[in-house]
Design a protein that fits this description.
CATH topology of the largest domain: Rossmann fold
Shape: globular
Number of domains: 2
Distance between the termini: 47 Å
Mean pLDDT: 91
Radius of gyration: 26 Å
Oligomer: single chain
Strand content: 15-25%
Number of helices: 21
CATH superfamily of the largest domain: HUPs
Number of strands: 18
CATH class of the largest domain: Alpha Beta
Helix content: 25-40%
Length: 606
């Protein structure tokens, strides 16, 4: 999940062109960077713990015929940047290798780095040792590794540069005795390249031969830990409360008396049940087929599929590729709360389906800093109606999907939004009366947003700490998600039955990974969910799971006893993910949890 790019030419390369290519590629990740280039008969590697834009300033006078670059979204080991070099061979890699630990157990080689990319380098070394040539290398990658890979290998002594990809997230063009490659087609189009080829497989090119050892220069700086690991169980886990309250609940669903605006009739049935309209009723498949045909003349069978790595978007991708036989291009927006588990599942899905993944990585440090500012504000005056502001940063997904549509010339975008995710209570705690008629899983439209933001503004005036530098990011994200009209926007589950058991069973085909600290498969790729659900349950006695399972009851998918059994497990605090979340934003676990636990509760625990 990075940007890889490069230029090979028989003549001296115009560095301004390379810099443009590098800056375009930075949107895929800017956590660290690396370059490999040929200069004065020698290949040199320059890599650093900062963005490529700054690294490029250090080669302003370079004259070269071969230069490649890597703009990194760190997903594995912050200690080791790319290019990774070993035994005279260098590699830059976009993707995630899933079975690196298993590979090293059977390999004749031992790892020298703490990065999954080294597996591909080791496979190459072992292949050359046996085969003596590069022929068959791509097949070896497929045979001996799992996960997505789009990579560039350089062999200075052989005078070869090799590109390999199993997802198609790699493009190249050849013209005027020059080769340019990048992770996205749009980057090459922006470089005025006309004959652009998507690579699935392997392609090799000639580069200057050098018998000299590769010179490596690495710049390390002190920085925040961008990839905190899931902690092991410790005494800290005991700080988390799990007191199941004795609350009056609806006799039909399981919503409790602490649900905002809830009312019970004489039979104990809540107004949410009385006003519920079934949502999980797919439209006729012919309507979907006619819809797809209407887009064929513009973009063939291509469509854009937003992919978070979660359960529902993963299954939607499965439907679109396997059932509808389309050629989806996935798009992921990483705002700092996409978990490692979600990234690995994206790698699984895209590699096994052979699907391209366009990644847009925001400024992770800044985004996490915004979350921290708002959490600090919330802790000063805890208010369940304002807790939702912690998730505001991810709403820019909707803005970026519009940019990708224009770049690719593909209008149709099909999402995988679970129709039963409607919660009502997040806005309800702010004083927003539930709209039982809404068709979306979130409120849309200018009038709805003005009403919602007015209530939020009142809360902010009571706690001015929310009036910080993150406010514009929050408001603009809400605009793109809930106000701006979504065009060519469809939900796979408007046409396909959402069935939890079927989805979970189908994803086993991909060895889809589940969380270590919960049996649920919902929300496990979202770094924020474990934290905010702990807050809701501790302070209000219920969480998203209660509303979700209540919707399933109303749809006839679950019995009430089953739902109660599920939430009794699902509402248990997820220590490992809560600790990861607070580590990621630089907050003290004990202090945060203590503040939550001591806050006034809306119920009396048994």
């Amino acid at each position: 999940m990075c940007g890889i790019f490069g230029i090979i030419s028989e003549k001296k390369i115009d560095l301004n062109s390379f810099k443009k290519l590098a800056l375009l590629s930075e949107r895929r990740g800017r956590d660290s960077s690396g370059l490999l280039f040929f200069e004065t008969d020698t290949y040199k590697i320059l890599k650093a713990d900062y963005r490529c834009k700054n690294l490029l300033k250090e080669i302003s006078d370079l004259q070269t015929q071969c230069i490649i670059g890597h703009s990194r979204l760190i997903t594995n080991s912050q200690l080791d940047n790319q290019p990774v070099h070993r035994n005279g061979i260098s590699i830059i890699h976009n993707g995630i290798i899933l079975d690196d630990d298993l590979y090293w157990q059977s390999s004749s080689l031992s790892p020298e780095y703490k990065i999954d990319t080294e597996v591909l380098l080791a496979i190459t070394l072992e292949h050359l040792n046996v085969q003596g040539s590069l022929e068959g290398l791509y097949e070896k990658f497929l045979e001996q590794s799992k996960g997505a890979f789009s990579c560039c290998l350089t062999f200075p002594k052989l005078g070869k540069l090799v590109l390999l990809s199993n997802t198609g997230s790699l493009y190249y063009s050849e013209s005027d005795k020059k080769v340019i490659f990048a992770s996205e087609k749009y980057f090459l189009s922006a470089m005025n390249q006309k004959k652009i080829h998507q690579l699935k497989g392997m392609q090799s090119f000639d580069i200057p031969i050098s018998e000299e050892s590769v010179l490596i220069d690495e710049r390390k700086i002190v920085r925040d830990n961008l990839v905190p690991s899931l902690p092991k169980e410790t005494l800290l886990e005991k700080k988390l409360l799990f007191e199941v309250p004795n609350l009056k609940r609806c006799t039909k669903c399981i919503l409790p008396e602490t649900m905002p605006f809830i009312k019970f009739n004489s039979e104990g049935v809540c107004n949410y049940c009385e006003n519920y309209t079934p949502r999980n009723k797919p439209k006729d498949k012919d309507e979907l087929l006619n819809l797809l045909k209407s887009y064929e003349k513009f973009s063939g069978n291509k469509c854009i599929v937003p992919l978070s790595g979660g359960r529902d978007s993963s299954y939607a991708l499965h439907i679109i590729k396997k059932e509808l036989k389309m050629s989806p291009i996935t798009m992921t927006y990483d705002w700092g709360m996409v978990t490692d588990l979600a990234r690995r599942n994206i790698s699984r899905m895209c590699s096994q389906l052979g699907v391209e993944n366009i990644i847009i990585a925001d400024n992770i440090s800044k985004k996490r800093s915004n979350i921290k500012k708002n959490l600090l504000a919330w802790l000063k005056k805890p208010d369940l109606g304002m807790l939702n502001i912690l998730m505001a940063g991810d709403k820019h997904f909707f803005r970026h999907i519009e940019s990708i549509k224009k770049e690719l010339g593909v209008s149709l975008n099909i999402w995988g939004m679970n129709p039963l995710e409607v919660t009502h209570f997040k806005a309800g705690f702010l004083g927003y009366v539930p709209d039982f008629e809404t068709k979306q899983v979130f409120y849309t439209g200018l009038s709805s947003q003005l009403r919602y933001q007015f209530l939020r503004a009142i809360a902010m005036l009571k706690n001015p700490s929310y009036l910080n530098s993150s406010l514009w990011d929050t408001l603009s994200g809400e605009y793109y998600r809930s106000v701006k009209t979504q065009k060519d926007f469809y939900n796979a589950y408007d046409f396909w039955q959402w069935d939890e058991n079927l989805i979970n069973e189908s994803l086993k085909e991909y060895e889809w990974e589940t969380a270590v600290d919960t049996k649920s498969t919902w929300r496990i790729g979202d770094g924020t969910a474990a934290f905010y659900n702990y807050v809701y349950f501790t302070l209000a006695g219920f969480s998203e799971f209660d509303t979700f399972r209540s919707n399933q009851i109303r749809e006839g998918q679950l019995s009430r006893p089953q739902a109660l059994e599920y939430v009794n497990e699902e509402n248990a605090p997820r220590y490992q993910n809560i600790k990861w979340y607070l580590d990621a934003i630089g907050m003290d676990f004990e202090k945060v949890v203590e503040t939550i636990n001591l806050n006034h509760k809306k119920y009396y625990p048994t």
